[in-house]
From TrEMBL:
<keyword id="KW-0804">Transcription</keyword>
<dbReference type="Pfam" id="PF00392">
    <property type="entry name" value="GntR"/>
</dbReference>
<dbReference type="Pfam" id="PF07702">
    <property type="entry name" value="UTRA"/>
</dbReference>
<protein>
    <submittedName>
        <fullName>GntR family transcriptional regulator</fullName>
    </submittedName>
</protein>
<dbReference type="InterPro" id="IPR011663">
    <property type="entry name" value="UTRA"/>
</dbReference>
<dbReference type="InterPro" id="IPR036388">
    <property type="entry name" value="WH-like_DNA-bd_sf"/>
</dbReference>
<dbReference type="InterPro" id="IPR000524">
    <property type="entry name" value="Tscrpt_reg_HTH_GntR"/>
</dbReference>
<dbReference type="InterPro" id="IPR050679">
    <property type="entry name" value="Bact_HTH_transcr_reg"/>
</dbReference>
<dbReference type="InterPro" id="IPR036390">
    <property type="entry name" value="WH_DNA-bd_sf"/>
</dbReference>
<feature type="domain" description="HTH gntR-type">
    <location>
        <begin position="10"/>
        <end position="78"/>
    </location>
</feature>
<keyword id="KW-0805">Transcription regulation</keyword>
<keyword id="KW-0238">DNA-binding</keyword>
<dbReference type="InterPro" id="IPR028978">
    <property type="entry name" value="Chorismate_lyase_/UTRA_dom_sf"/>
</dbReference>
Length: 244
């Protein structure tokens, strides 16, 4: 068992935090396992309640642990990590990580675009869009609630879109409509899970999430998709690499 260095300049809570994290990283505790209580940590490491509490609180804030009222503190499932360096596909990322992706189509219909969509997709007055609403899961666990909006003028047969789930949206556009998506730009914004979203994502209202807005372009530079995704903050993590 690793010991705390009481004479170190490193605060005791931070030392304890790193010891707990190492137990998770080394597989001593696995996702779903309950960790020792504050009282047990106080006794085991001879620290104050405030030290034990702060170490746990920081791990909860980092998403490494989670609390269940009246039951204790447990090890979280590892987050799905995705680099923003290159163009990516959610399904392909999951497959590369050994997970089984699946899409549940919730709705496909013609709708009138908002002013934001009209601007993003460069639409004229009176033009409609096709909304494709789907729930994106990994190993049967919902991760993303997503709505894609495509200009109706480019989709000659809306029924073809029912194939999504057996084939990716971009592959389908390429195969059926000769539309090749070559680039996209995305904006990220922290949000909280709302009531209707929590039902689909199987998580609590008010939990942290990311709102991702994507505009995808064809190889000719034509905007073909405006996409809004609500991504579970407890299950996904995005990062980028910077060079000087």
């Amino acid at each position: 068992m690793m010991q705390l260095q009481h004479n170190s300049v490193i605060p005791l809570y931070h030392q304890l935090k790193e010891i707990l994290k190492a137990s998770i990283d080394n597989g001593i505790w696995n996702p779903g396992d309950k960790i020792p209580s504050e009282n047990e940590l106080m006794s085991q490491y001879e620290v104050s309640r405030n030290t034990a509490k702060k170490a746990i609180e920081e791990l909860v804030q980092d998403g490494i642990l989670y609390r269940v009222q009246g039951k204790g503190t447990f090890v979280s499932k590892p987050k799905l990590e995705q680099s923003l360096t290159n163009f990516y596909s959610f399904s392909k990322v999951l497959k590369e990580k050994g997970m089984n992706p699946s899409d549940t189509l919730l709705n496909i219909e013609n709708v009138f675009p908002t002013s934001k969509m009209k601007e993003a997709l460069e639409l004229s007055d009176g033009e409609s869009v096709i909304e494709i609403k789907r729930l994106r899961s990994a190993n049967k666990e919902p991760f993303i609630l997503e709505s894609s909006f495509l200009p109706s003028k480019f989709i000659k047969d809306i029924h073809v879109l029912n194939r999504i789930g057996t084939i990716s949206l971009y592959d389908l556009l390429d195969e059926e409509f000769n539309i090749t998506v070559s680039r996209a730009k995305e904006a990220f914004e922290p949000v909280l899970i709302r009531d209707n979203e929590s039902n689909y994502l199987e998580t609590e209202v008010g939990k942290p999430a990311l709102l991702i807005e994507r505009i995808a372009y064809t190889d000719k530079g034509v905007p073909i998709e405006f996409c809004k995704s609500i991504v579970r903050g407890d299950r996904c993590r995005f990062y980028t690499e910077l060079t000087k």
